[in-house]
């Protein structure tokens, strides 16, 4: 039953831009942010809330911009290296951060992201400051394409990645390592007493979550073509947290569902109101109190499975 | 004289002005079942905390096979073969009973498996066998958090056993277990431990259990050992009767 | 050399004073309510905007400029009265006893709401109203010129530290708060109205944050984005000092304030980063802050 739903959804996503071309850009961004939100969700599995995760989204985007400037202009290479950059950043930051839990962890993540934002905004010579950096259309598997064709190729590549990487993350969460991550949240003490080095389990999760944000940042960078410090701003992180919570911590599909929902909503709302952060804030509180398992939980309950 | 499996030498620690461990000297030999009895608050759980690296003593040492483990972290000590069950069961409450065991089995075998399922590679089978050993197999799919108190205790103990330890420390294994089930539990547990040649230290309040299953009894009082010996001797000691067991 | 260092030190201490008000409010709310309010920085920003708006109104209405002083405190009070009880009762209360994840997410949601509210009400312009600073002028001691307003800030901060300490140890309400901090359930069972203590403590925290923002307007004005910047800075200071430690927050504020001005002077593009480098260093050595305490044992 669920497999059927999944295939229908995938088909719908694949056909959507043909039916409504304006949707393609929105959906590409939704997929990109979905990846980053999946990163947040992975950490949530371990009981850790990162309210600064947009920093890894930004690291990948800027890394790609730098690499493109240096002459590297192939989509696959840029994607891989951008993700790697975020993963490395995650490893470094995570090594310090995994000593902490709960609010300390959350605030330290926020602080780091604000520092990155400040640096990105101020170091004009390197990062282009508040003007940001422009990214030329990369080659796609060796082919030189015009912007429109590349965007389409990017979108479908994004969908393929969503399925592939999503499957990998699902396997990770169902594995002993993934269960250990959840166990950290439920009873860290017992896990330690079972001989498991909790910090290493968390560091691996953190690096994975940073890499996921990196995939998202790479896709977004190539879709938008203009990279700004705002990629790292705390409101961007807030958006990711809402998506993760909205999607529910039930599964890998959740953050993507939440992201698609929110991105389409945002596009429709922009014409009507300016107070998007207000809406997100209210929605976040609303979801927590009234819909604790998120949208994903809602879908699961409908098809007859326990939440 | 062979090296004792675990040896505590002159352990001392104080909290908030109370001397919780006041020069503790204790030995456990390989293969024996050692019971620790004593009034509440006399420092028995503190002793377990000191042996497993949860607390660092202000002075004194703990030795495993003659090598000092005093400064090690709980997870290192666990890897060296000491498993612990807790007074208040420490379970993965959000996970099912079988998942709790599979995590423990995975922890023993190696947790660094990123893509295979939790139950693969025989982990599920081993977990099921362990559950069957203590009669928890009927509740395998239940959430650990939904278990009643006595069953939680049982799960806590069997998680410790999943580590296939050389020494298991049991903190009040029968507390929370009904009197009827108590002997069945201890019978199953003790014979399983004997078969696997696991040394056991158990803190107990039930004197019948102690009398029946302990090879040796250590009596705790105010942070240190007051008396020790086989149950028959210890339970004849007047001081023990007065301070610990209670005589009419 | 000395005549560059001393004004720098005064600068640093004055900015330390401002950040102290916010940080001590944060740490106070944490120790009583056991919740770290991610939206705390927004109260600073709102306090700043309210104070600047009132100040501008006083100037445009040609009222006595000396009114701008009580106006600063009054602004903080308005913010505290408006938001304190409301937020505590409607939002914070539902998070007590729930998992920390919920607390973080809820206060983060509040943060998003307040930031947009501030933008909607006050717009995206920066506001500045420096009458209080102008009125006090400057003094010259030994060849160095000091802004009297900055000296006032430092004096106020010292007074607040002392008053808070006296409040907690010598007054009846202070002892109630201390009891609730020590053991909430116990306090309830001996009849302490913990609800009232929570509302008062939270409102005091909001007042202190808003006061910091209000007092900052004559020298720094109010600008968009102030809320987020201040939040992470206040957290850094509270973390360095040790969560729940009043004197720790004071000491940490001094260290951070001085670090910032030194950075501005020697490495200007790093001035935003300096407090976090300090935080990193301190937390690496003492993970719970300078005066913080680790959690009590659980088994």
Would you write up a description of this structure?
The complex is a heterotrimer of chains A (307), B (248) and C (299). Chain A has 307 residues and is mainly alpha-helical. Chain A has a domain at 21-232. Chain A has 13 helices and 2 strands, in the order ααααααβαααβαααα. In chain A, strands 1-2 form a two-stranded antiparallel sheet. In chain A, helix 2 (23-45) packs antiparallel against helix 9, helix 4 packs antiparallel against helix 9 and helix 8 (176-193) runs antiparallel to helix 9. Chain A starts with a helix and ends in a 5-residue tail after the last helix. Chain B has 9 helices and 10 strands. Chain C is built from 12 helices and 2 strands. In chain C, strands 1-2 form a two-stranded antiparallel ribbon. In chain C, 74% of the residues lie in helices and 3% in strands. Chain A binds chain C through residues 44, 47, 49, 51, 96, 99-104, 106-107, 110-112, 114-115, 118-119, 122-123, 189, 234-235, 238, 241, 245, 274-278, 280-285, 288-289, and chain C through 36, 38, 91, 94, 100-106, 108-117, 119-120, 228-229, 231-232, 235-236, 239, 269, 272-273, 276, 279-280, 284, 287, 298-299.
Quick synopsis:
With 307 residues, chain A is mainly α. Chain A has 13 helices and 2 strands.
> How many whole angstroms does the radius of gyration of chain C measure?
19 Å
Task: Return the CATH architecture of the largest domain in chain B.
Answer: 3-Layer(aba) Sandwich
Mean pLDDT of chain B: 90
Rg of chain B from C-alpha positions? 18 Å
Output the strand order for the largest sheet of chain B.
6-7-8-3-9-10
What's the arrangement of secondary structure elements?
The complex is a heterotrimer of chains A (307), B (248) and C (299).
Chain A: H1 2-19, H2 23-45, H3 54-69, H4 75-97, H5 102-122, H6 124-127, E1 133-134, H7 147-174, H8 176-193, H9 198-224, E2 226-227, H10 234-247, H11 253-270, H12 276-290, H13 294-302
Antiparallel strand pairs in A: 1-2
Helix pairs in contact in A: 2-7, 2-9, 2-10, 2-11, 3-4, 3-9, 4-9, 7-8, 8-9, 10-11, 10-12, 11-13
Chain B: E1 6-15, E2 18-28, E3 33-37, H1 44-51, E4 59-64, E5 67-68, H2 74-79, E6 82-85, H3 97-109, H4 123-134, H5 149-161, E7 167-171, H6 179-195, E8 199-203, H7 207-213, E9 216-221, E10 224-229, H8 231-234, H9 238-245
Helix pairs in contact in B: 3-4, 3-5
Chain C: H1 2-33, H2 40-60, H3 68-90, H4 100-122, H5 131-136, E1 138-141, E2 144-147, H6 148-170, H7 172-182, H8 184-189, H9 194-220, H10 226-241, H11 246-266, H12 274-285
Antiparallel strand pairs in C: 1-2
Helix pairs in contact in C: 1-6, 1-9, 1-10, 1-11, 2-3, 2-4, 2-9, 2-10, 3-9, 6-7, 7-9, 10-11, 10-12
